[in-house]
Amino acid sequence: MTFTDQYLAPTFQGLVAGRVFNFNGGPAALPLPVLEEVASELLNWRGTGMSIMENSHRDKKVVAMALETEELLKELLALDSSWKVLFLQGGASLQFAMIPMNFAPDGAPCDYVNTGLWSDKAYKEALICGAGAKVAASSEEAQFTYIPREFDFSPGARYIYLTANNTVRGTQWHTFPAGTKAPLIADMSSEFLSRPVDLSNFTLVHAGAQKNVGPAGLTIVLVRTDFAETGKKGLPHLLDYRTYINSDSMYNTPPVFAIYVASLVFKWIKNTIGGLANMAAINTNKAVKLYDAIDKSGGYYRGTARVDSRSTMNITYRLPSEALEKKFLAEGQKCGLHGLNGHRSVGGIRASIYNAVPDQAVDCLIDFMKDFQAKNA
Ligand SMILES: *Cc1c(COP(=O)(O)O)cnc(C)c1O
Fold first, then answer.
1. What is the CA radius of gyration of the chain?
2. For this structure, is 211 an active site residue?
């Protein structure tokens, strides 16, 4: 029996309760035990007689849950007291505007490293906000297939902005610029909590939750409070980081349900996985075997990112033709391999293997790839 035949056989035990293996780029897979816990206490959260969604955000239990979530995150990331964790809305995309509005107002200089769609959007948003934004490095000339290593940073830059993991192009920073004069700011949306990171040179990190942390509608911001204090004064409240700092993210109604799910994900990383070092080892193992399958296919599958810049989260590759890619996606879907299409701006194949994507999903994908190649080469 081939992989596909076996997979489609009614006796196949690879899927849990009819669920697919989810390789979505975002919103993306969540850990199964987290979803089960959400389901188990959906109707009556912590004895309140109602769901978490129906509780007031001023209720003591909800306030405690949000503070506990912040503490869990600080513990996972080993953040000291110079940092504050904020829960915002507006997605990673609102951060593209809030960062320059606060920290590079009135034409102040700031540097951007352009590694693809999301950093380009952040740069252009900074220009709209009136920042003196400059592209200090770019890999555009090579279709964003690598992370630049040479930078033309401005002397007086207020910050250096980069995208830690490029969700669309499948590239990732393995080491961040060191010894820069200006502090680093990073969009870590699609790699948040996938590995331990040394944040000593960073001053702000933001991440939309829906890639690696929880439901859409929540954006996590880590910011040093002394840096936040340097922000422009007089901005509308919801665009000023101080508003969130001074209210523990409760100035207005926060996305309570999304924070709650994120708290369960943080607990899962801490208690079941055993922390970020273990998470990174699991993620590296998944990525290595998938890249291996690509590299050992005799050129049938071709990775799009340069080897030294490959992402452990988004594995992007091509087949010999677009027609074969279409067939690959359709047959994969029939086998319960969902969301393997590349970002609509680039096409091809993208397997997003975030924290919650199990080893078994990657093994099935690799088996499917071998089977597909044998039949279609
Ligand atoms: C998905 C993504 C975004 C956009 O996030 P929104 O929450 O939809 O605004 C920004 N940056 C990166 C790196 C992403 O992967």
1. 21
2. yes
Of the residues 271, 302, 333, which one is the last residue of a structural domain?
271
Residues 329 and 242 placed together within one structural domain of the fold: no
CATH of the domain at 310: 3.90.1150.10
Checking if the pLDDT of 12 tops 80, the result is no
Asked whether the CA dihedral 69, 164, 122, 226 is positive or negative, the reply is positive
- Annotated catalytic residue, options 118, 173, 267, 371: 118
Cis peptide before 27 (omega within 30 of 0): yes
The atom number, within ligand 1, closest to the CA of 210 reads 7
Q: From atom 10 of ligand 1, which residue's Cα is the shortest distance away? A: 92
Question: Going by CA atoms, what residue is nearest to atom 7 of ligand 1?
Answer: 91
The answer on 241 and 201 residing in a single domain is: yes
Q: Is residue 35 part of a domain?
A: no
User: If you average pLDDT over every residue of the chain, what do you get?
Assistant: 95
Catalytic annotation on 118? yes
pLDDT digits (tens, 9 = 90+) for 253-301: 999 999 999 999 999 999 999 999 999 999 999 999 999 999 999 999 9
Q: At what angle do helices 91-103 and 117-128 cross, to 10 degrees?
A: 40
Q: How many domains does the structure of the chain reveal?
A: 2
Strand intervals (E) in the chain: 21-22, 83-88, 109-114, 132-138, 160-163, 165-166, 171-172, 184-187, 202-208, 219-224, 302-303, 314-318, 337-338, 349-352
Domain co-membership, 145 together with 265: yes
Considering 211, 268, 367, 371, which one is annotated as catalytic? 211
15 — pLDDT class (breaks 50, 70, 90): low
Q: What is the CATH number of the domain that holds 164?
A: 3.40.640.10
Per-residue pLDDT band at 13 (split at 50, 70, 90): very low
Tell whether 250 and 323 lie within a shared domain.
Answer: no
**Ligand 1 pocket by C-beta < 6 Å: which residues?**
26, 91-93, 118, 163, 167, 187, 189-190, 208, 211
pLDDT tens, residue by residue, 194-223:
999 999 999 999 999 999 999 999 999 999
